[in-house]
Automatic annotation (TrEMBL):
Keywords: Iron, Iron-sulfur, Metal-binding, S-adenosyl-L-methionine. Pfam families: Radical_SAM. InterPro entries: BchE-like, Elp3/MiaA/NifB-like_rSAM, rSAM, rSAM_horseshoe, rSAM_sf, Slr0320-like. SUPFAM superfamilies: Radical SAM enzymes. This is B12-binding domain-containing radical SAM protein. The keyword Iron applies. Residues 236-472 form the Radical SAM core domain. NCBIfam families: rSAM_slr0320. It comes from the Bacteria. Its cofactor is [4Fe-4S] cluster.
Amino acid sequence: MEVKNPMMENRILYVRLPCNPIFPIGVVYLSDHVHKQFPQIEQRIFDLGTVPPLDYTFALDRCVDEFQPTLLVFSWRDIQIYAPVGGRGGNPLQNAFEFYYAKNPLVKLRGALGGLRIFIAYYVELWRNLGLIKRGLKRAQKYNSDARAVVGGGAVSVFYEQLGKSLPQETIISVGEGETLLEKLLSNRDFRDERCYIVGESQPRQRLIHEQPTPLEKTACDYDYIENIWPEFNYYLQDRDFYIGVQTKRGCPHNCCYCVYTVVEGKQVRINPAEEVVAEMRQLYKRGIRNFWFTDAQFIPARKFIDDAVELLQKIVDSGMTDIHWAAYIRADNLTPQLCELMVKTGMNYFEIGITSGSQELVRKMRMGYNLRTVLQNCRDLKAAGFQDLVSVNYSFNVIDERPETIRQTIAYHRELERIFGADKVEPAIFFIGLQPHTHLEEYAFKEGILKPGYNPMSLMPWTAKKLLWNPEPLGSFFGEVCLQAWQQNPNDFGREVMKILEEKLGCADLEAALSAPIITKDKQLASVL
């Protein structure tokens, strides 16, 4: 191959590493921002999520050969695999529970074999993605010896310390959002004050992920430009049921003990101007999109942002997009009757509530900062406003200080949600928390001796995985048996079956008990630990 002049103009290739077919809003927003700051720079988006697995290396080689980038920006979305859904050739949660808790040797063996398949797939995927990064960079350097790589995305933001040991020298590892980092890099300014570090040159700063992101004024994404630099763009427009991501804000002000969003995005909530959000939606609307997912950590993160949500929804009403639907994660404690009416009027047809527990006592201990009584009242307001669609309620059992009484309280709370929306409209999503680095729960695990500093959070070895899939004794085996029974009895409606079995075994508390959280000395001690 002919090596071209190393002083050639910057050419940026964004490579979205393989993952589930989720709209790659990160690289879309990055490339849009760079174009607005440096309109002369040539860019291309290459999405391996649209490429068959057997063609990954060939397709990457071909793209690099055609475009000859001077800078490769890799987006790596997923690494951790604990979830109650299928993936990587099986259901990770089910396999783990069969292996750890099944009494039938054949079921335990099935879990072990399923876990082995996931174990192999996990490491193959890890090595494959690292290999794609190295391959893409090496091939680009054949055309330009100064070509370099930036690696970021959700997976990198969480596991940036571990991944740095496996990436090529001089790779820039980006934590969180990367717009201002790229802006400084392309302007030949010092970018080391951004949330990043360079492999082989420096070690990541202590608590790097906890540093606040650089504020950024977000404008509507220019989809005419994006369509021009992204040949696979129409892949996501073919299925009219597909939800396209639109971001209305960044940041989450809360301290939920297990959640890493608040450190990745920062605690400062930065609102995107409502008129810019609507202008972005209208561009997609003209391309036939009718389903939107607001990709914020929380659509209404706190009561102080209610007016911003009202403004946005009213502008959607005024825009004339009357046949759209949208969905989001929502803190239902921040709804008002006005908001509920606007949500229904603008076409919200699905939302998720991550309440984690139906016990106010445990909600407090997990630092989640909301009132379950308020959530119920706001759900009643939403129903009164005419909401008739699906609600997904996320429950993470066996969190800190779970016991039979708090389980009964969660059941009582869930039954009340069913009375409000209808049992067929409330879908319980049963999670067991995957412990992640940089969270309060990790600090609690260190304090309690469950984990030791220096452990590898990316390890899938059974002795590590059992600790990271948070389901400690004395209730761990009990929940394991309940979940195994639910998978056996009704695998297609796992969440509802779990709630049914729990109620059969433990009963249902009085709703008022679920909504009350007496403060006792033990709470104060635990709060000081977390």
